[in-house]
Amino acid sequence: MLKLKYALEYIRRNKALSIATIIVLTITFILINIFLSAQIITDRIAAYLNKQQKISILYDPDAKKEEIMTLKKELEKYPSVRRVIYKDSATLQRETLKSLGLSEDQIEEFLQNQENAIKILQIELKPNQPYQDILNRIDKEQKRGIPIVSVVYFKKLIDRIRTISKGIKIAGGIISGGLIVISLQLIYMTISFSVTKLKDEIKTMYLVGAPKSTITQPFAIQGGIYGALSALAAFAVLTSTALLLKLLLADNYFIKSLHNLLTVLEIPQLINNRAITTAILAEGILGFIIGYVFGNMAVNNTIKKLNYD
Questions:
Q1: DSSP letter at 208?
Q2: Is the alpha carbon torsion for 99, 103, 108, 111 positive or negative?
Q3: How high is the mean pLDDT of the chain?
């Protein structure tokens, strides 16, 4: 307890450096959390879309059913196709459009006139099968003048998302790594400055025979406090920002769409009291350990330079 008291006193004596260190560390933890969250979300999007294994052709209401059924029979013969489903009832269309990730507003727009509802041909693919020949066949239909409104398929999108995910991982690693190095150097410099500033007191402690741990550990704890406070501050900033945006932009279309997407990906299920408590404890402990280790290195190296050891 006495060592903690000394550590807090050292922080008080170096307010400016302490605040600067905590701010930089907090920014580092915030960015790491953002990159990790983006990584989790993109991975879950890719996993979710990969389960769909579907290509959906959306036809104009004026499209002739005979022409659609002719294409259906042809596509059913492709080796990569498991089955092809034709849907034209409003209820089934709503189900299909929702599975494609469209928002409720977009679904209502499609279904505003149920007598002339769009027609859908849904192609279910076998796992890990090529699909370019199917897209080429659909493209020929469009060139023939068949009124196809849109073609929705996920495999190409999955490849793009995985590329984005890799980019996030690389960018996150580089940026976070650089900030971590800067933060650790800042902890090291702050502790070294504290030791140098208190060199006369430290020398007196050595002369009266104080144990080395009594001298060095308060500085290491000082570094640990920087790390723990920064991790907790980062978590608090991210959580409060998310809650504030939710309150201020509750009726915003983008926020609603994002919430729907996260719900589909089952992200909210990962966020519960136990998960939040675990995350807070884990980040706080990690921050303390990082700060303690580098604080301990700084105090020992600085004392060696002062020839007190």
A1: T
A2: negative
A3: 77
Give the burial class of 109: count Cβ atoms within 10 A of its Cβ; 0-12 exposed, 13-18 middle, 19 or more buried: exposed
- How many CB atoms neighbour CB 42 within 10 A? 19
Residues 249-269 pLDDT 10s: 666 655 566 666 666 555 555
Domain residue extents for the chain: 2-26+183-305, 54-153
* Nearest-angstrom CA–CA distance, 232 and 237: 9
The span from the CA of 192 to the CA of 307, in Å, is: 14
Q: Which of 16, 19, 11, 20 is nearest to 198 (CA)?
A: 11
pLDDT of 265 reads 56
Alpha helices in 53-154 (DSSP H): 65-75, 90-99, 104-110, 132-143
Domain 54-153 adopts which CATH fold? Alpha-Beta Plaits (3.30.70)
| DSSP-derived pairing of the beta strands 81-87 and 119-125 | antiparallel
DSSP 8-state class, residue 112: S
| Cβ–Cβ under 8 Å, residues 210 and 272 | no
The predicted model scores a pTM of 0.60
pLDDT in tens, 276-296: 677 777 778 888 888 888 888
Phi and psi at 55, nearest 5°, equal -125, 125
* Nearest one of 126, 69, 105 to 253, comparing CA atoms: 105
CA distance 57 to 38: 30
Rounded (to 5) percent helix, strand, coil in the chain? 75, 10, 15
Contacts of 202 (CB under 8 A, 6+ apart): 195, 215, 303, 306, 308
Contact 154, 54 (CB under 8 A): yes
**pLDDT exceeds cutoff 80 at 229:** yes
